Amino acid sequence: MVVDSSALLAIVSDEPEARQFSGALLRATDPLLSNVAFVECAQALVDRFGAVGATQLDHLVHALGLRRVPVDDALASAAADCCRSFGSGPAPAWLDAGGWISCALAHTLDRPLLFKGGDFLRTDVAVAC
User: Fold this and answer.
1) What is the DSSP letter of 127?
2) Domain spans in the chain, listed from the N-terminal domain onward
3) Distance between CA 100 and CA 30 in Å, rounded?
4) Is 3 strand, coil or helix?
5) Tens digit of pLDDT for each residue in 91-112?
6) Distance in angstroms (rounded) separating the CA atoms of residues 119 and 30
7) Which of 25, 35, 69, 88 pairs with 2 at a CA distance of 20 to 30 A?
8) What does the alpha-carbon distance between residue 54 and residue 48 come to, in Å, rounded to a whole number?
9) Is 128:113 a contact under the CB 8 Å cutoff?
10) Do residues 124 and 86 touch, judged by C-beta distance below 8 A?
């Protein structure tokens, strides 16, 4: 499973999906998180909760056994391909750079993506839950 920052934000912020997302991650084998999604999530949590938000994220990543994945040239190219394929047309997926990288990571490794919101549904990525 690949995790988008939106799912981690939901967990740390104790949003309605928090329990469902946490359970899915605890059951997952080798869950992955791109370094870009990690930074994106840390920034949002610091904005919402101050420095304690980033600390909570560090603890969560460790507790859930998330493995952080660097963005290499191949993943960056795959993210650009996802943007070209799904970011235009009649119902484009409105994702930011972190979202495209999460989508590409899931796509290239043939893993489902854990996320909150509807924009990833406009791609062909497998949905984790």
Assistant:
1) B
2) 2-122
3) 21
4) strand
5) 688 888 899 999 999 999 999 9
6) 25
7) 88
8) 10
9) yes
10) yes
* Predicted local distance difference test score (pLDDT) of residue 92: 83
State the pLDDT confidence band at 89, using cuts at 50, 70 and 90.
Answer: low
Question: Hey, what are 125's tokens?
Answer: 């990525």
Mean pLDDT of 57-86: 94
Residue 54 near residue 44 (C-beta atoms within 8 A): no
Amino acid in position 32: L
Amino acid at 40: E
> Tokens for 107?
């796509």
Q: Record the tokens describing residue 80, joined without a space.
A: 């650009």
- CATH architecture of the domain 2-122 equals 3-Layer(aba) Sandwich (3.40)
Angle at 118 between CA 30 and CA 46, to 5 degrees: 65
Q: What is the residue whose two structure tokens read 């043939």? A: 110
Identify the DSSP state of 122: G
